[in-house]
Write a structure and sequence with these properties.
The protein is built from 17 helices and 17 strands. The chain is an alpha/beta fold and 453 residues long. It is elongated and about 105 Å long. Bound molecules: ligand C2E and magnesium ion (MG) (2 copies).
Amino acid sequence: MLYKIIFGFVVMEALLLIVVCVRGVEQKGKKNMKNSITGAWNRYAFMKQMKYSFKKGNAFAVIVKFSDLKYYNTTLGVHSVNRIRKKAAEWLDAAWKEMQCYDCGNGVFALVGFGIEGSKEKEIEGKIMERFQDAWKCIKTEIVIPVQVCSVHIPDDVHTMEDMLLVVDREFSGKESEILNFQDMLTEYQRKIMVEAAIYKALENKSFEVYYQPIWDRENGNIHSAEALIRLKDEELGFISPEEFIPIAERNGTIFDIGLFVFEEACRFYKEKNLQAQGIDYIEVNLSVIQCMDSNLVQNFNEILSQKDLEACHINLEITESAVTDNQGILKRTVRALDHMGIRFSLDDYGTGYSNISFMYDMPFTIIKIDKSILWKALHPQLGQGDYRARIMLEKTVSMLQEMKYQILVEGVETEEQKNLLEKMQCDYLQGYFFSKPLPADEFMDYLQAANT
Ligand code: C2E
Ligand code: MG
Ligand code: MG
C-alpha cells in the first residue's frame, strides 16, 4: 500500500514537472517572439504571421515606418527613442482590436488583420497619420517623428516574403510623414532592378561612355579644363541619367568598376589627344565617396597614371559636398594619400549639403564648385530674375571663398546674364550649357579647337 502511495506521488511529481517545463518552454518561446524594447510581437513573429497570411489570404497589413532611426538615436539618445517606440507600438496595438501590431525592428511596425473592409483601410491610414503628426512625450520634451505609411493587400499586392520585405526594409529618411502607394513602390523597385541589369550589361559589354563638359576660364576666356561625366544608354530603357544609376551602383558595388573605368578613360583621353598642348590643364573626374572605401583605390589610380604615363596634376577629383560629412575618417585617409600622389581636389555641389566649413579647410580642396541651384536662385535662367537674398548669399559666399584662397567654379551657367554676373563677382571658372552641354569625346575636340583658337 505504502509502495503504491509513494509510486503515485512520484508519478504526480513527474507530471507536474513536465507541465512546468512545457509551460516554461512555451513562455520562453513566446518571449522570444516579443521585442524586448517595445513588448510587441517581433520580426520573427511577423514573418511567421506572413507565411500564414500568404496561405490563408484576405489579409491586410499596414506598414508604419519611422524616419531615419539612426539620426533620432544620435540626436535624442537611444533611451528616449526607445520610449517613443514603445509608446507608438502600444498605441498601434490598442487602436484597432481586430489588428495585431508587430515590431519588425529599426523603427518599422506592421499592423496585420484579416478580412478588413476596403472602406476601413483609408480610415486606418488617416488615423495613423493624424496620430504621428502629434508629438510623443519623451522625458522632458515632446517629439514629432515622421512616418511612412503603406497599406498592403495579401495576396493581391504581395504573395512572397521577398516582396513583403521590400516594403519593410525600404529606406525612409524623409522629414515629412507620407502615405505610400504600394503599386508605385513596386514600379519604382522594378525600375531599379532593370537599371541594375542595365549597369551590369554595360560593364560586360564595355558600353559605358564618357562625355566631357568644357570649363571656361574667366581670366583668359579659354576652355581650360573639362568635367568627365559618365553616360549609360540601354537598348531597352534608353538614356539613363547618372543621377539615377550612380546611387544604384553605389549600393550594389559596381561603382568601383565604373569609377575605375571613368578614371582610366579620362587619363587615356587626356594623353592620346595631347590635351595639355590645347590648353586643357586637367580633367575633373567625379569620385564617389563609396570608392574611397576601396583599400586598393590609391594603388589602382597610381597604376593607371603610370600606365598612361600621365602626371597626377592633370586629374582633379570632385567630391560631393553631401558625401563629405559621412565616413570622414576613411575619406580623409584616402584623400590625403591621393593628395600625396599629386592629384588635386574640388568640392562639388557646394551649398546643397551640410556646409561643413571646418571639414572643408581640413581637406586639400583647390576648387570649390558652387552648385547650380545657388546660382539659379540668385538669377534664374528662364525667368531672368532672382531672389535678392539669394543674390546676397551668392555674393557673400563667393567673397568668403575668395578670402579663403579657394578657386571658385560656378556650375549651371545657362545665360549671358548669369555669365556677366559671375564675371563681375570675379569667379575663376564657369561651367554650363551657355558654353556647352557635356559632349562625346570627338565633339569635345571640335568644340575645343573652335573655342581656344
Ligand atoms: P555633377 O558632378 O554636379 O555634374 C554636373 C551636372 O550638371 C551634370 O549632369 C551636367 O550635365 C549638369 N549641368 C552642367 N551644366 C548645366 C547647365 O547649365 N544646366 C543644367 N540643367 N545642367 C547642367 P549629369 O551629367 O547628368 O550628372 C549628374 C550627376 O551624376 C553629377 O553631378 C555627378 O554627381 C554624377 N555623375 C556623373 N558622372 C559621374 C561619374 O563618372 N562618377 C560619379 N561618381 N558620379 C558621376
Ligand atoms: Mg561633378
Ligand atoms: Mg556639381
